[in-house]
C-alpha cells in the first residue's frame, strides 16, 4: 500500500502547490499529489469539482496558474514542446469517451500509436498488438470493425491502445462511465492487472467509489477548491469527515455542493438578460 512519500524523483506524477482554472476562475488551488511508480491512484470528487482539469494539467494541455507539475521526474514547464512530446510517448491516456477511429478495425486502432511513434517491424507490431488485445480478452476480436463492438468492448480496446507503448504512467478519465456492472468490474481489474504487469503508475479520475476503492493504493478526494481528503481506501472509508462521508455514501444532503457555483461570467450574463427584459 502507498503512503504519500515526498520526493519527486521516485514519482511518476507529482503536483506541488498547483492551482488550475480557466480565465479568471480558479478551480483548485494548493493541490499536492504524489503518484509513486507502479501505484494505482484514484482522484475522486463531485461533478464539476475539477478532476478532468487536473488531468489536463498532468498531460501539459493546461498550464497551472501556480505551482509545479512533474511527470516521470521532469518539470512540465521546464522543457519546450519537444520535451513534452518525448514525455507524452511515455504516458498513456484514456479519454472519457475512449474515442476509437471508426474507419480502422480493432487491430489498427491498437497499432496506431506504434505506427506513429516507433519504427517497429510488422512482426513486432503484430506480436505487441495481439498481446495487448489478449490482455483485455479481445485477441479474437482483432479483425472487427468498431461498429461491431459493444460499449464495454470498445472501452477495452481503448484500454489496450492506451498501454500499447508500454507507458510508465497511464491516466484514465472516467474509465467506468456508462459500463454495466460486469464490464465495470472487469475494467477495474484490468486496470489493476495492467498496472501490476507493466509496473506502470495509473491515475483514475472517477466517481465510482466501490470499483476504485477495490483497486486503488491511494485516493485523493477533490472539492471545495482543493484536495479535501486523501488516504488509503480503508482510511477514507473510516473517515468521520462529513464531506468524505457524504461523498462516499452518495448522500444528497451535506457539504458536497450540488449547485454549480455563480461565477462573474454568469452574473454578467444574468445582468444582461435582466437588462434586456426591462
Ligand atoms: N475549457 C474550459 N473552459 C472553461 N471552463 C471549463 C473548461 N473545462 C471545464 N470547465 C469548467 O471547470 C469546472 C470543472 O470541470 P472538470 O471537467 O474539470 O470537472 P470534473 O470534476 O471532471 O467533472 P465531471 O465529474 O462532471 O466530469 C466546471 O465547472 C467546468 O464548467
Automatic annotation (TrEMBL):
This is ABC transporter ATP-binding protein. GO terms for molecular function: ATP binding; ATP hydrolysis activity. It comes from Pigmentiphaga aceris. It comes from the Bacteria. InterPro entries: AAA+_ATPase, ABC_transporter-like_ATP-bd, ABC_transporter-like_CS, P-loop_NTPase. PROSITE patterns: ABC_TRANSPORTER_1, ABC_TRANSPORTER_2. Keywords: ATP-binding, Cell membrane, Membrane, Nucleotide-binding, Transport. Residues 13-249 form the ABC transporter domain. CDD domains: ABC_Org_Solvent_Resistant (cd03261).
